[in-house]
Write a structure and sequence with these properties.
The structure is a single chain. The protein has about 160 residues and is α+β, with helices and mostly antiparallel strands. Helix content is about 40%, strand content about 20%. It is built from seven helices and four strands; from the N terminus they run ααααβαββαβα. It has a four-stranded antiparallel β-sheet with strand order 2-3-1-4. The chain is elongated, with a radius of gyration of 20 Å.
């Protein structure tokens, strides 16, 4: 499926507000409701839309700790990466894990109840012998800019 500018606009609007009605969405992207709904259903069927979710205000729920962690593995064979990923994939507090280029292998983002929980997770990981050579932790003090949407119109101008 080749996307056009209307498809990109639909995706842009849906990532801003997944609860928008089809009539409102159609108006926002300058379509009538029926063709708009057909496009949305096609975007879903083709896998461009993976699902819908609520954005939870974590501050309202209570205090949490966000930590970015750089991890370097001892060895760099495919089996080493697979063993590491299999272990960390089971950690609920790990909300992002990226294989990166540069001075370390993975950049991970944890959200925990506090420093004690984070440290316990890291101690468990290092005790598991899953190939971690070293890790560095960066505790987030404040997050002045956090966006949940991708800049689709600038990434994919049509």
């Amino acid at each position: 499926m080749k996307l056009d500018r209307i498809d990109i606009k639909i995706l842009h609007e849906l990532q801003k507000n997944g609860r928008v009605t089809n009539v409102e969405l159609a108006e926002l992207v300058s379509l009538s409701p029926s063709p708009c709904l057909i496009r949305v259903k096609k975007l879903q069927a083709e896998g461009y839309i993976e699902g819908y979710s609520a954005q939870v205000n974590m501050v309202k729920l209570g205090q949490t700790l966000t930590v970015f962690t750089e991890v370097t593995l001892k060895n760099h064979r495919q089996i080493d990466f697979a063993r590491f990923l299999a272990a960390v994939d089971k950690i609920d507090q790990l909300i992002e894990c990226h294989l990166v280029s540069g001075g370390y292998d993975y950049m991970m983002k944890f959200v925990t109840a506090g420093i004690g929980e984070y440290q316990a997770i890291m101690e468990r990981l290092t005790d598991m012998d899953i190939g971690i050579d070293k890790y560095f932790s960066y505790v987030v003090l404040k997050s002045p800019i956090v966006r949940s949407h991708m800049p689709l119109s600038s990434l994919f101008p049509l």
